Amino acid sequence: MSSPCDPQYSPAGDVSAALMLVDSRLKAIYDGRTEVDPEQRRLDEQFTASLGPTGAHDLLDGVCTIIFMYMKWLRTACEGHDKDVIAYIVPNLVTTMRGMPRSIRPQAVPTMAGLVVAAGTGLSPSLWRRQYGDWTKEEMNALEATAFLLAEVINRITDDHDFATRLITNALSSAEAH
Questions:
Q1: Its domain of life (predicted)?
Q2: Under 8 Å between Cβ of 125 and 61
């Protein structure tokens, strides 16, 4: 039986723009910058505002698509080592996010855990979230952090700072070729 949250029913969104935001955060961390540069944050906010309501919605769907793709990769990697992706990823993600109270409001953490569980079980994070109403402003940093943290886990597993970004760009290139 098909679920209304099946990824086949989900819009991919603007994956390229979402990847640009995630990749810029990864590069900042790998360059030793632990705090988000206020100028970079301002540029990101300006970019997001320039998208308008439809573009912003596409960006949110794009971030959810990235989360789904990262969890799919992590699920495959975990299964290869007889590990459960949910048990492996979610506790560390929640712990990390709870340790970021200036960036991520505590009430957003359960939603992000739910998104990751949805993606880890093969459901569309975007459609899963939609059933609970519109995104809130408080969830924006948490959503971005979720995609970033999953990318960072993948990069650590592969010992390659660019692997998670390449994973998505290769998938985009492959999709464009078809």
A1: Bacteria
A2: no
Angle value at C-alpha 146, between 121 and 8, nearest 5 degrees: 40
Terminal-residue alpha carbon distance, the chain: 28
Give CA–CA dist 177/10, Å, rounded: 21
Q: What b/e string do you get for 52-61 counting C-beta neighbours within 10 Å, with b at 16 or more?
A: eeebbbbbbb
- Quick check: 24 pLDDT over 90? no
Q: Which two tokens stand for residue 102?
A: 């200036």
What are the tokens at 103?
Answer: 């960036």
CA 29/CA 135 separation, integer angstroms:
27
Q: In a 10 Å sphere around its CB, with 0-12 CB exposed, 13-18 middle and 19+ buried, how is residue 168 labelled?
A: buried
**How much of the chain, in percent, has pLDDT values that exceed 90?**
58
Domain boundaries, the chain: 11-177
Q: Helix-strand-coil percent breakdown of the chain, rounded to 5?
A: 75, 0, 25
Separation between Cα atoms, residue 87 and residue 175, nearest integer Å: 31
pTM greater than 0.70: yes
Residue reference for tokens 């912003």: 56
Tokens, residue 71: 């969890």
SS3 124: coil
